[in-house]
């Protein structure tokens, strides 16, 4: 894990939607994760960094089916401060979305990623960000997932915390894993400063 992390110019909040962040079906670490994500969002806005909330459009009958209570973003969007919401249908927040164009237009070179699920949408989005040359920081306490159910003849239940840690490890040595959301700092990009964000 990284001992010191340089500032980033954007925060990508992945699928922090009501179905996953609140209620009896939320990810086990939801209360702690939500506190950490809220802190990251507040500090990113204060610093003038870009805040993007990805919102997954699940299939019919899924907890995050569009238009259902579970699909709603769990945390407020501050349009007046430049927050951006991008809807997606795939795990990877870059696939078939304007995310890459937005990051390019705003001059972002380094970003932090948080949200759910660690091994799916968070990981897929981080992997593409790395492949596209962005510096990627992932705070350990600001992403979460569910337990993996037992599979007869394969394994017992895999606890959610272990799944999240393996997801980090599987991203390789280019991603910067930091223990706490509070380890992440923000700054505006040169383009953001020019635009007076």
TrEMBL record:
Origin species: Streptomyces sparsogenes DSM 40356
Pfam families referenced in this protein's UniProt entry, alphabetically: Isochorismatase (PF00857)
Organism phylogeny: Bacteria, Bacillati, Actinomycetota, Actinomycetes, Kitasatosporales
GO MF annotation terms: hydrolase activity
Sorted UniProt keywords: Hydrolase
Domain of life: Bacteria
Protein name: Putative isochorismatase
Domain Isochorismatase-like: 10-147
PANTHER family in alphabetical order: ISOCHORISMATASE HYDROLASE (PTHR43540:SF1), PEROXYUREIDOACRYLATE/UREIDOACRYLATE AMIDOHYDROLASE-RELATED (PTHR43540)
Keyword Hydrolase: yes
